């Protein structure tokens, strides 16, 4: 049986649409789990330390900042592990060259920021990558 030219083009178009839809579905992330977790969750302490160090490294401030309060941590599991973290950070009395734990600044040098970090994590390899960072003065 021969197909008429317009039926053949319709068939080719339908195949093309199916292939595009299939490839789109392959690229789309499938969420296995998204849930709020606490600081005791494995991988969270290391991730918090990483984002603090990354923030301080990028910051133009002469003082280090530290996390003062954790507002929310969500764990997203897709084809990889991702943490979505909201924290309040404050400027400390330590300069960037100092590595000890210091008190937070008070008075004229007081500064607090609220940050959101999206972090790609491979826990068993202790690998981290910040996917998104947004910080605002609070």
TrEMBL record:
Keywords: Disulfide bond, Signal
Signal peptide: 1-25
Keyword Signal carried by entry: yes
Limits of the Cystatin domain: 32-136
Keyword check for rRNA processing: no
GO CC field: cytoplasm; nucleus; sperm flagellum; sperm head
SUPFAM superfamilies in alphabetical order: Cystatin/monellin
Tree of life domain: Eukaryota
InterPro entries: CST11, Cystatin_dom, Cystatin_sf
GO molecular function: cysteine-type endopeptidase inhibitor activity
A GO biological-process term: killing of cells of another organism
SMART domains with a match to the protein in the record: CY
Family: Belongs to the cystatin family.
Matches recorded under PANTHER family: CYSTATIN-11
Record's protein name: Cystatin-11 isoform X2
